[in-house]
Amino acid sequence: MARYDRAITVFSPDGHLFQVEYALEAVRKGNAAVGVRGTDIVVLGVEKKSAVKLQDSRMVRKIVSLDNHIALACAGLKADARVLVNRARIECQSHRLTVEDPVTVEYITRYIAGLQQKYTQSGGVRPFGLSTLIVGFDPYTGVPSLYQTDPSGTFSAWKANATGRNSNSIREFLEKNYKETSGQETVKLAIRALLEVVESGGKNIEVAVMTREHGLRQLEEAEIDAIVSEIEAEKAAAEAAKKAPPKET
Amino acid sequence: MKLDTSGLESTSPFFGSGDELCPELSAAPSFSLPLSTDFDEFQKDTKATLKHAKGTTTLAFIFKEGVMVAADSRASMGGYISSQSVKKIIEINPYMLGTMAGGAADCQFWHRNLGIKCRLHELANKRRISVTGASKLLANILYSYRGMGLSVGTMIAGWDETGPGLYYVDSEGGRLKGTRFSVGSGSPYAYGVLDSGYKFDMSIEEAAELARRAIYHATFRDAASGGVASVYYVGPNGWKKLSGDDVGELHYHYYPVTPSTVEQEMAEVAGA
C-alpha cells in the first residue's frame, strides 16, 4: 500500500485534537452567520464584508442551495466550503438516484458531518475550516429543520443558532428573544439577531428565506433595508416608551 | 457500477483457504470469477439441461385494500420435480414481501440481503424505507451483476407512507412500477385469469380468491408449476398469509366429480 503522509490530526497528551481546535478558531474568525427556524419558514442570514468597490457583489453568494428544499450557509474558510458544498450537492442527487427520494435535512447534515469527521481521522489531510448551518424542509412531512455542523464532525438540530464572528453574542440575543414565529416575524428575528454584531444596513447583510412552496429566495437589498428600518423604528419606539412613564408621574 | 460485494462480507469465515485441518479466517472475502471473457456462453450447455429458468408462477396486484401476492411452490430441474414445497414468497420485513422466480438460491440470498439493507436504512434514517427505495436498491445490485448468470425475476410488494407499492425487478437490471404483474413460466395462464377477473374495487376475500384461482389455473396447464398455492395480503399493518391450498385439492374444489346416474342406481340397490 502507498505510504501515508504523517497524520496531521493526532491527539495531544491531554486528549485534545489541536488541528480541530485550530479549525474552530478559523471559524470564529469567519463572518457571522445566523439561522432561525419558524413554523413554516426557515431563514439564513450572513454578514457581508463591506462591498469592495470594484467587485461584482451579485456574484458573491454566501447562502447556497444544496437541492430544491435544502440550503446552507457557513462561517470559516470559504474555499473549503466550496468543496464541501459540491460533495453535498452530488450526494443529494446520488440519493435521489438510488432511492428515488429527495434527501431529508438530517441525512445530508449527517453526510456533511461525516465528511468533516473523515478529514480529522485521515493521514495527510487537515480538517475543513468551517461550520455550516443547514436549513430545509422534510420532503414528505414538510417539517422545517435547522442543523449545525462543525469541523470536528459533530452535528445537532437547533431552533435558532449562530456561528462565526461574535456568535456568542448573537446566540445570547436569540436565547433571550426567541419564540415560535412564522413568516415575516421569523425573518425579522434573524435580521435583528444579526444586527447585534453587524453595522446596520442592507449592504452589510445577506438574507435568504426558504418556504415549503417557494423554495429558497434571496432577499433583495431594498427588502432588507425596509425590514431594517422597521426594526429600527420599533427599537426607537421601545426606547421612547421606556423614557415616557417616569415623566408622567 | 461497482460490484456490490457487501452481501458477501461478514458471513462464513471459512473460504476454503486450502488448509482443511485448520481453516484460518480469510482477510477480505471475495469469489474468483471463471476464466472466461464471455459470461453468457459460459457452460451454456449445462445450464440448458437444467433449465430451471423461471419455471414457476408468481403474481401480485394492487387493489383497493392493498396488495395481494400469490405463488405456487414447485421447483423443477428439467423434467424432474425437485420439490413441491418451496417457499416462493419471501418475507423481507414485516411490511414487505418479495416473490421468487428463477434461481432459488439467487432469489433467497438477494432478498435476505435486501432485508439487511432495509433494516440498516431504518436504523440510520429513523424511518422505514419506501417500496420504491427498496426495489431500487435491489435493482441496482442486480444491474451490477448483469451478465454474470444471476437469474432473478422478482416482485417487491409492500405498504409504505405513500400507500401500497408494487415493483417488478429482474436480473437483467429492469425495474418496472405497476399494478398487476405475473412472473414465471405459468404467467401467461395466470394473466388470463387475473386480467379477466380484476377489478380495483374488490374486498380482501374476493382478491384472495382471484389470486388463488389464477395460480390454480397456471399450475393446471404449466408443467413447471404446482404444489401449493400460497396467498399473502399486504395491508397498512404489514403482510399476512391468507391461505396455502394444495392445487390438487383446489382442482376438485372448483370442479367436483359428480357421480353418474348408473353408479347411483347401483348404490340404491345395494342399500335396499
UniProtKB/TrEMBL annotation, chain A:
The keyword Glycoprotein does not apply. Residues 4-26 form the Proteasome alpha-type subunits domain. It is found in: Cytoplasm; Nucleus. GO terms for cellular component: cytoplasm; nucleus; proteasome core complex, alpha-subunit complex. PROSITE patterns: PROTEASOME_ALPHA_1, PROTEASOME_ALPHA_2. The keyword Nucleus applies. Keywords: Cytoplasm, Nucleus, Proteasome. It comes from the Eukaryota. CDD domains: proteasome_alpha_type_7. Pfam families: Proteasome, Proteasome_A_N. InterPro entries: Ntn_hydrolases_N (IPR029055), Proteasome_alpha (IPR050115), Proteasome_alpha-type (IPR023332), Proteasome_asu_N (IPR000426), Proteasome_sua/b (IPR001353). GO terms for biological process: ubiquitin-dependent protein catabolic process. The proteasome is a multicatalytic proteinase complex which is characterized by its ability to cleave peptides with Arg, Phe, Tyr, Leu, and Glu adjacent to the leaving group at neutral or slightly basic pH. The 20S proteasome core is composed of 28 subunits that are arranged in four stacked rings, resulting in a barrel-shaped structure. The two end rings are each formed by seven alpha subunits, and the two central rings are each formed by seven beta subunits. Belongs to the peptidase T1A family. This is Proteasome subunit alpha type.
From TrEMBL, chain B:
It is found in: Cytoplasm; Nucleus. It catalyses: Cleavage of peptide bonds with very broad specificity. GO terms for molecular function: threonine-type endopeptidase activity. It holds the Pfam family Proteasome. Keywords: Cytoplasm, Hydrolase, Nucleus, Protease, Proteasome, Threonine protease, Zymogen. One of its GO terms (biological process) is proteolysis involved in protein catabolic process. GO terms for cellular component: cytoplasm; nucleus; proteasome core complex. The keyword Nucleus applies. PROSITE patterns: PROTEASOME_BETA_1 (PS00854), PROTEASOME_BETA_2 (PS51476). The active site is at T56 (nucleophile). It comes from the Eukaryota. SUPFAM superfamilies: N-terminal nucleophile aminohydrolases (Ntn hydrolases). Component of the proteasome complex. Component of the 20S core complex of the 26S proteasome. The 26S proteasome is composed of a core protease (CP), known as the 20S proteasome, capped at one or both ends by the 19S regulatory particle (RP/PA700). The 20S proteasome core is composed of 28 subunits that are arranged in four stacked rings, resulting in a barrel-shaped structure. The two end rings are each formed by seven alpha subunits, and the two central rings are each formed by seven beta subunits. The catalytic chamber with the active sites is on the inside of the barrel. The proteasome is a multicatalytic proteinase complex which is characterized by its ability to cleave peptides with Arg, Phe, Tyr, Leu, and Glu adjacent to the leaving group at neutral or slightly basic pH. The proteasome has an ATP-dependent proteolytic activity. Component of the proteasome, a multicatalytic proteinase complex which is characterized by its ability to cleave peptides with Arg, Phe, Tyr, Leu, and Glu adjacent to the leaving group at neutral or slightly basic pH. The proteasome has an ATP-dependent proteolytic activity. Belongs to the peptidase T1B family. This is Proteasome subunit beta. It comes from Citrus sinensis.
